[in-house]
Amino acid sequence: MLNELEPDSLIVTASGEAFRVSKALAEAFQPGDLVIPNSQQGLLHLTNDEQQIVDTAVTQSLEAFTTMQQVTDDQVTDFFNTFCDALKSEKIWKSIQRINEKDVAMAKARGRSTTRLEVSETMRTSMINGLREWAETDPSRNSIVEPIDHDHFQIQLETSALGVVGFVFEGRPNVLADACGVLRGGNTAIFRIGSDALQTARAMMEFALRPSLLRSGLPEEAIVLVDSSAHAAGWALFLDSRLALAVARGSGESVEVLGSLARSVGTPVSLHGTGGAWMMVADTANSEILRQSVIASLDRKVCNTLNTCCVVASRAKELVPVLLDGLNMAAANLGQEYRIHVTEGSEAFISEGSFNRKVTINRADGQHEEFQASTLPVVDIGQEWEWETSPEITLIVVQSLGEAIDLFNAHSPRLVASLISNDEQEHQHFYERVDAPFIGDNHTRWVDGQRALNKPELGLSNWANGRLFGRHAILTGDSVYTVRTRYIDASKGRSRT
Question: Which of 432, 408, 389 is closest to 308 using CA atoms?
Answer without folding.
Answer: 408
